Structure formats: structure tokens, C-alpha cells
Amino acid sequence: MRRKLSTSLLGIGLATAALFAATGSAQGHGYVDSPISRSGVCGNGSVQNCGQIEWEAWSVEGYKGFPGRGPADGQLCAGGNGRFSELDDPRGGNWPATNVSGGQSYTFNWRIVARHATTDFRYYITKNGYNPAKPLTRADLDPQPFLTVPFNGRQPGATVTHSGVLPQKTGKHLILGVWTVHDTENAFYSCSDVKF
């Protein structure tokens, strides 16, 4: 019985390793937890029915080069990764939102599970008139990031904080954080719902 159980567990372990190798799902490694992102509220259990992101809050990885390249419109919050499409569902505009103020100095915080050489961190915000009940598109975002933090190929620590001034906005908005990896084709995407 013990040998049969050990063989079964070994088989499951090998299958899991093969799945990670084939899908790349073991490669995702960071998300914003201040203001808390959709990945974060799914990962901590504040929001239910989030699918796989509930166990992999750090895995929203997609192609880099945003906004010229990267995930397709309507798939930005999931980084173009269909396994995490629940993050792109606007849920009728009912995602929990962090209260913020326009013109406020704010400290953004990333949780880094695996440290990658980094090009930069960039923060985009939705335009005035943004409809939180629709999936996020490039046209919804101000064209330039309101905060860019260059890293020039350095590795971040286990947590990374950036301070910047929030733009003057009113109502509900979405902040898209993009962590661009320096030495791969990928970036990490993190959507945080905020209310001004």
C-alpha cells in the first residue's frame, strides 16, 4: 500500500512539473498590494470566484512593450493570460476600491515572489469618464504613465515601494501597474481599483 501511494504521488508530482514547464505558469512572480490589486483581493479571499488567480496572485505575466505591444485590449488586467480572465471581468464595476485623493502623495507597494532583472515599473490610470463596468482598454487609459521608476536591469527586493503623486481625478478609476522584466520578453500586469 505504501509503495502504491508513493508511486501515485511521484506520478502526480511529475505531471504537475510537466504542466508548469508546458504552460509557463510557474514563472509569474509579483503583484501590487498597495493599492490592493484585483490579484491581491482574489488571493486574500476578499473576492470570491476568481479562478486560478486565487492561488497564484503573483502570476499575471504577459508580453512586454505596453502600450505598443503586450496584452490585447480587454485582457490587460490578466496580462493576456486566459487562465486569469476573471481579472478582466469588470463585475459590474463592483471590484473593491481603495480610497485615494487627487494630488495625494501615494506609496505603491509590489510583493515580489521571484526577483527578476528589471527595466522599470510604470503606472497608468484611466481617463476621466472611465466606465468601470466595462473591460479595460488602452483607450480608457491616459496615454502616458503618471509614474515611471527606472531600474536599469537591477533586481528588486522582496518588496518594492514607489512614491508618486496621484493625478487629479474624481470617481472610480483603475490603475494599471506594469513591471517590465529586463532580460525576458515579459512583463507583469497588476490592476488596482481606486476611488477618488
UniProtKB/TrEMBL annotation:
CDD domains reported for this sequence: LPMO_AA10
Keywords, ordered alphabetically: Signal
Superkingdom in the source lineage: Bacteria
Residues making up the signal peptide according to the UniProt record: 1-21
Domain Chitin-binding type-4 intervals: 29-194
Keyword check for Signal: yes
Keyword Signal: yes
InterPro entries in alphabetical order: Cellulose/chitin-bd_N, GlcNAc_Chitin_IntDeg, Ig_E-set
Transmembrane regions: none
Classification via Pfam families: LPMO_10
Protein's name according to its UniProt entry: Chitin-binding protein
Provenance organism: Streptomyces uncialis
